[in-house]
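To: structure subgroup
Subject: Chain for Friday's discussion

All,

I'm putting the inputs and outputs inline so they're searchable in the archive.
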Amino acid sequence: MEFLIEFGLFLAKSLTVLLVALVLVTAVVNAMRSTRQHDQLPARLEVRHLNDEYRQASLTMKAAMLPAKALKTEKKALKAARKQHGDSDKPRLFVLDFHGDIRASATESLREEITAVLTVAEDKDEVLVRLESGGGMIPAYGLAAAQLLRLRERGLRLTVAVDRVAASGGYMMACIADRILVAPFAIVGSIGVIAQLPNFNRMLKKHDIDFEQFMAGEHKRTVTLFGENTDQGRQKFQQEIEQAHRLFKDFVGRYRPQIDLNEVATGEYWYGTQAMAHNLADQVLTSDEFLLESSEKTELYLVSKKVRKPLLSRLLPGTGDALNRLSNTNVLRL
């Protein structure tokens, strides 16, 4: 009898664990299926009329300050403004946001936002890009910069606002603008190229592990993580870095000829007020100040394309960037 009781308890515990595991697996599968279905839905373009939001914020403040009669008048004015803003002859300012990671992943959204703007923009309209990026992979930021060039080639005035950082690849994008605005302590510049990688060759030899690499083409691979790097390979890789740096400097010089590249293309960065002295920026002004001032004479539209992040990035924020850095250690970066 005692054996049967113990066996029954063991069986009950086993069934409980199995049931819990089954419930968890089912939940994960359903979540992944739901996520997959959601990710397959097309991303939606969102457009917000910022003037209306400013007026609404002002009305909220006045509701706590004005008597009822005056507040009623303000509400009528807001309602009238909402009705007629579509018929306004004011120029339009389209606002775009770019938050860059090492792969410039936001480029896809930027591309579609710019395409949308170009379908409706007129010669009198302008574009403001609120840019934040510390740089990353050269091809990725080259493509992001090329998207901004589409605006200039169309003849639209482009302003880039840097509230926090536009360094390296971020500054490659910013320099295209007709005007660069910086917050007082925003980080700007870092016109340089870097590549770094560990080498595990000595550790492999210590443990009697052979690493073999086969190539066709003398410079197909110059330096490696696991093989034994040679002085010739290091020299060739350094040449590639310097070549990329020259291209970067030429690009900046083309769009901001007022910059003394010998002075600033050293890989250093400067804060907003210092950047003005080096002609890296045109005005010390935050994007908030610029938009609020512009709202008095311009119709402001915030254009954004929402892209759903992969499941791993949502569950473990920062994992994607860490994996990107690990898998691209020997890639040239701005």
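Points worth raising on Friday:
The CA atoms of residues 1 and 7 lie 10 Å apart.
Residues 42-65+92-194+260-327 form a domain with the 2-enoyl-CoA Hydratase; Chain A, domain 1 fold (CATH 3.90.226.10).

D.
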